[in-house]
Amino acid sequence: MSDTLKTADIALIQRIIPHRYPFLLVDRVEEIDGYQTALGIKNVTMNEPHFLGHFPGKPIMPGVTIVEAMAQTAAVMVGVDLGMEDRNMLVYFMAIDSCKFRRMVVPGDVLRMRLTTLRGKPGGKVWKFSGVAEVDGEMACEAEFTAMMDLPKE
């Protein structure tokens, strides 16, 4: 790890990725070590729209939104390192591999997502990441995923 880890608050996150309510799924990204590793934070709240139907009387965060939150964390990590603020960067899923869900994520939980770059470099379009999402130190989800970074030209 470098000596100067970076952090992205919600204002900076919104300057890097285009996602907005109800699909902005990361509240803060901490411990950004270049484009290598980062820790995303998602505060899970009952007022999120997917809880209306998933499931009435037993709200559970859908697994696909957990994976999406990890992907958004990865995009912010790379965006911070590459200086993509206000540059209209888009990121597209290409593959999701080795995805496993280990515990339910419910309103009131704080989802902590540790992301690591497996493949990718500045200027490259295709990146691969590994992510682990935890609640209270207990693994909720793990996955590897590949994404294409649509980086705007200078």
Automatic annotation (TrEMBL):
Protein's UniProt name: 3-hydroxyacyl-[acyl-carrier-protein] dehydratase FabZ
Species this chain originates from: Primorskyibacter flagellatus
PANTHER family cross-referenced by the UniProt entry: 3-HYDROXYACYL-[ACYL-CARRIER-PROTEIN] DEHYDRATASE
Subcellular location: Cytoplasm
Location (main, coarse): cytoplasm
SUPFAM superfamilies named in the record: Thioesterase/thiol ester dehydrase-isomerase
Positions of the catalytic residues: 54
Any one GO BP annotation for this protein: lipid A biosynthetic process
Leader sequence residues: none
Reaction catalyzed: a (3R)-hydroxyacyl-[ACP] = a (2E)-enoyl-[ACP] + H2O
GO MF terms held by the record: (3R)-hydroxyacyl-[acyl-carrier-protein] dehydratase activity
Domain of life: Bacteria
